[in-house]
Specification:
By secondary structure, the protein is an all-alpha fold. It has helices at about 15-35, 40-75, 80-95, 105-130, 135, 140-175, 180-185. The N and C termini lie far apart (about 115 Å).
């Protein structure tokens, strides 16, 4: 008896083993993306962004100083030593630049902080000197510069705080599980970030420049 086969029927093609391997790899990638594998570079970028704000605010302060010095000089030219100290401190502070490439250099960061502290001290002395000149204290240009300087000091304090928090989050991530695993496996070239150091009491507070 002859046998007939249904030619419309065809067996399901067998999936090759390497297809399953690709599928497993794809699933693994999705799983890893949800386990924080991208968290370390994300936090690192946040550190760099926060540092940019620190630099911007310090530069804003430096830009205010020439006009401030000229205004004070118009009423207190005999205070040459104090004025010179501010000018020299500004020059030193603006000559030390710390960008994303040198942010991990402890010595460079320390030099930057020291220069900015010296400038803050020189500005404080300048403001103290200005107390002896009533006409200067009532000058509209000086009052405007004083207000801008006070606002900038507050912005510097906020930017420093945000940078400190960003560095702490990054450093904590690469030193704790599971971030420490990803750091060893994939981001070993990204070291622990240096942070600002508190060098005095209330170092996180803006200096007072009120009259």
């Amino acid at each position: 008896m002859p046998m007939y086969y249904d030619r419309s029927f065809s067996p399901r093609p067998r999936v090759r083993p390497h297809h399953w391997q690709w599928l497993a790899l794809l699933c693994l990638c999705f799983a890893l993306s949800g386990c924080g594998i991208n968290r370390i570079p994300t936090l690192d970028e946040q550190v760099k962004s926060a540092w940019s704000q620190v630099e911007n605010q310090y530069q804003r302060r430096a830009d205010l100083i020439p006009n401030l010095v000229e205004t004070v000089k118009g009423y207190a030219s005999q205070e040459q030593e104090t004025l010179t100290a501010v000018i020299e401190a500004r020059s030193k502070a603006t000559s030390i630049q710390v960008d994303a490439d040198t942010l991990n250099d402890p010595e460079q960061l320390q030099q930057f902080q020291q220069a900015q502290r010296q400038l803050s001290g020189a500005l404080s002395r300048l403001m103290a000197v200005s107390e002896r000149y009533p006409e200067l204290k009532s000058n509209q240009n000086f009052l405007a510069l004083q207000s801008q300087l006070e606002g900038t000091e507050n912005r510097i304090a906020v930017a420093r705080r945000d940078f400190i928090q960003a560095v702490e989050a990054y450093n904590t991530e690469i030193r704790t599980f599971p971030g420490s695993i990803w750091h060893k496996l994939m981001y070993s070239d990204m070291p622990i970030r240096e942070n600002f150091e508190a060098t005095a009491e209330n170092a996180d507070q803006a200096p007072q420049v009120n009259f």
